[in-house]
Amino acid sequence: MVDTLLIPGPIVISENVQKALGTPSVSHTCPEFVAVFSRTLQNTRKVFRAHPTEGQPFVLAGSGTLGWDVAASNLIKPDEKALVISTGFFSDSFADCLRLYGADVDKIDAPLGGVVSPDEVEKALKKTKYRLITFTHVDTSTAVLNDIKQYAELVHRVSPETFIIVDGVCSVGCEELQFDKWGIDFTLTASQKALGAPPGLCVAVISQRALDFALSDDTPTRSFFGSLKRWSPVMKAYETGKGAYFATPAVQLVNSLDVALQEILQEGLEKRWAAHKKTSDWFKGKLTQELGLKLVSEPEVSAHGLTAVYVDDPPKVSSFLKQNGVVIAGGIHKQIASKYIRIGHMGVSAVDPKLNHIPRAYELIKQALQ
Fold first, then answer.
1. One digit per residue, pLDDT tens: the chain, 370 residues?
2. Same-domain pairing of 25 and 162
3. Residues bearing N6-(pyridoxal phosphate)lysine (predicted)?
């Protein structure tokens, strides 16, 4: 019997997505695969709520972390200023990536479990000219959800030339995201989170103005595999139904992502966002109100794709769930790593009540604590 995987990614995938992994190998430039990849890129735009023709979606072999490298090597020049709004471990890691590529990084840290106030962000933007600003939509170390719409409006008002970069690894597919309407310049995610596909793909969308910057002769190419100068014509060709080559795409993974995106769009994005929120609210309510546990994230800024909650003996709780066929995650935030657990509720586990994944996880946590 396979354990039920309830970590903040990889997640349980649907039967049809699983089947798509088993397709025979084909040439990455054959008409059949080109048609699949074209549809995948077009549907990526739809799931991100990006412009139908401007900018460019990218689906690259790699994890979500590759998206950091793409942003850091294409959207900022060495010694230019970057502002990182940090809500946990992954925000801090994005800052480390930017520094590695030579960016001059300032970081504003949120209080543990909370968010950075818009006033602090505005003050920083008024004081310094930044090439880009980064937000982690949901930091999976704290389960804190940032209000990207509010921040984006602020950046456009105070520093409209600054690129808005969003790490959407644990948000795209389960939290509202309006790439085009909110004026975002680059959003990255990973296939194994709320998109509901297996691990192995970095999925991203870039705005037209950010793409123009990346493709400019004045912008140095500082990554080989992650170069948008190399990937942009390839993705554009595939999206318009023509085979192209720079590096071989992960054919079976793209097949599975194709099915996963179709499932999301057939269900409807708004309905899917609402289903994740309903599951999250129920689960967090049971943990806090019935078991008296405390969330790591403040209630008003808590994510809907995972829950981070303090327990007295995290290894004991995790071990008990594992013994009963459910896998959850431990803590990774350096200040509190040994004090809490993390439970993922994304994709089919959150939107298909017949699976009973989250109610069962709650009952097992309750038993473990008793």
1. 689 999 999 999 999 999 999 989 999 999 999 999 999 999 999 999 999 999 999 999 999 999 999 999 999 999 999 999 999 999 999 999 999 999 999 999 999 999 999 999 999 999 999 999 999 999 999 999 999 999 999 999 999 999 999 999 999 999 999 999 999 999 999 999 999 999 999 999 999 999 999 999 999 999 999 999 999 999 999 999 999 999 999 999 999 999 999 999 999 999 999 999 999 999 999 999 999 999 999 999 999 999 999 999 999 999 999 999 999 999 999 999 999 999 999 999 999 999 999 999 999 999 999 9
2. yes
3. 193
Q: Where are the alpha helices (DSSP H) in the chain?
A: 15-20, 31-48, 65-74, 89-100, 118-127, 148-158, 208-215, 228-239, 251-267, 269-285, 314-323, 348-351, 357-369
Distance CA 4, CA 9 (A): 12
Q: Is 342 annotated as a binding residue?
A: yes
C-alpha–C-alpha distance, residues 234 and 361, integer Å = 43
Closest CA to 134 of 192, 76, 78, 77: 76
Any idea what the CATH number is for the domain that residue 341 is in? Answer: 3.90.1150.10
Of 266, 301, 336, which marks where a domain is finished? 266
